């Protein structure tokens, strides 16, 4: 049953929490462009695109709250009305979700030594989920009452389940391919454990939002509780991407403290400068280290992962 608390109250809480997460994402974006000016162009474009979509979604959410609580203040009938801005903002949430999921699918591709079957499956699942969300949003645009959203309950639940499955699978594959890189060395295993924790946390918040949205649509379809989880999910996608990119300096500081400017790996590996950020000069030692190129660009954790994978494969061959 729709009440003032689970409609306007929830919508007000949504815009407040969403604004806080949007502010955190904006700060993360500022930090990214300041600390990683030499990143590849496609990565910079990805961050810029996500932030623009994030801003549009936040603006539409705020406009919806303004229409309900200010423009129609004192009008009790408006509680059952559905503004198009609440539906349009879902488009932007999908435009955030797809590139973020494809980014993680690309990481799975890199970690799995170019396994296009797994990464391709994840990419297709992400695109299929986005297409389903777009269909649902297009069908919801003509609706004028919140109660009418119940007619799309089945499609909505299916979309959220697909999104949750996609996020969980991405996290599972990331964690698995990181785990198999362990070699029994305490220092390198500790670094991998940190990366596993990051990988696990990237998909957890968004998956929980999808599950919560399914429950809310099933239990209380005439309220704004479903919208709360849908809107918040977009903020989590943005923040998870930016946190992943911005933790590269942290991982580098763990791998190569400032007192150790250069270290060694177990075999000679040189990666194309168009893909990675630094050059390795491995020798015969098992100690781990990192070199920073002449431009001073911070190395990503993927460099370490790729070198560990190649080192492990070489050990197996020997």
Written overview of the protein:
- The protein has two domains: 5-246, Rhopdopsin 7-helix transmembrane proteins (Up-down Bundle); 256-318, no CATH class.
- Helix content is 70%, strand content 0%.
- The chain contains nine helices and no strands.
- The longest helix has 34 residues, at 186-219.
- It is elongated, with a radius of gyration of 22 Å.
- It starts with a helix and ends with a helix.
- Mean pLDDT is 78; it is low at 258-300.
Shape: elongated
What's the mean pLDDT score? 78
Question: CATH topology of the largest domain, what is it called?
Answer: Rhopdopsin 7-helix transmembrane proteins
The radius of gyration over CA amounts to 22 Å
Report strand %.
under 5%
**What is the CATH C level class of the largest domain, in words?**
Mainly Alpha
Percent of residues in helices: over 70%
Q: How many structurally independent domains?
A: 2
Major sheet description: none
Question: How far from one another are the termini?
Answer: 68 Å
User: Count of DSSP E strands?
Assistant: 0
The CATH architecture term of the largest domain is Up-down Bundle
Backbone structural class: mainly alpha
Uncertain ranges: 258-300
- N-to-C SSE string, H for helix and E for strand: HHHHHHHHH
Number of helices: 9
InterPro entries: DUF6534
Keywords: Membrane, Transmembrane, Transmembrane helix
Protein name: DUF6534 domain-containing protein
């Amino acid at each position: 049953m729709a009440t003032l608390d689970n409609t306007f109250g929830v919508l007000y809480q949504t815009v407040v929490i969403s604004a806080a997460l949007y502010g955190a994402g904006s700060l993360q974006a500022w930090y990214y462009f300041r600390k990683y000016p030499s990143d590849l162009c496609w990565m910079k474009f990805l961050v810029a695109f996500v932030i623009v979509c994030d801003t549009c979604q936040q603006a539409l959410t705020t406009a919806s709250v303004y229409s309900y609580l200010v423009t129609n203040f004192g009008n009790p009938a408006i509680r059952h009305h559905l503004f198009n801005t609440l539906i349009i903002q879902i488009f932007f949430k999908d435009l955030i979700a797809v590139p973020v999921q494809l980014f993680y699918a690309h990481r799975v591709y890199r970690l799995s030594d170019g396994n296009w079957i797994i990464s391709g499956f994840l990419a297709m699942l992400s695109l299929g989920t986005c297409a389903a969300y777009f269909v649902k949003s297009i069908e919801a645009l003509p609706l004028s009452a919140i109660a009418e959203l119940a007619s799309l309950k089945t499609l909505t639940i299916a979309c959220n389940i697909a999104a949750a499955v996609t996020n969980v699978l991405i996290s599972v594959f990331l964690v698995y391919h990181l785990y198999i890189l362990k070699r029994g060395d305490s220092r390198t295993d500790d670094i991998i454990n940190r990366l596993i924790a990051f990988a696990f946390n990237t998909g957890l918040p968004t998956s929980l939002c999808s599950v919560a949205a399914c429950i809310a649509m099933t239990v209380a379809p005439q309220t704004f509780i479903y919208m709360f989880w849908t809107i918040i999910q977009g903020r989590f996608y943005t923040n998870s991407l930016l946190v992943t990119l911005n933790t590269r300096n942290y991982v580098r500081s763990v791998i190569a403290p400032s007192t150790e400017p250069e270290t060694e790996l177990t075999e000679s590996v040189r990666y194309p400068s168009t893909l990675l950020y630094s050059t390795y000069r491995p020798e015969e030692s098992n100690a781990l280290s990192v070199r920073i190129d002449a431009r001073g660009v911070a190395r990503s954790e993927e460099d370490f992962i790729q070198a560990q994978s190649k080192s492990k494969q070489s050990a197996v061959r020997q």
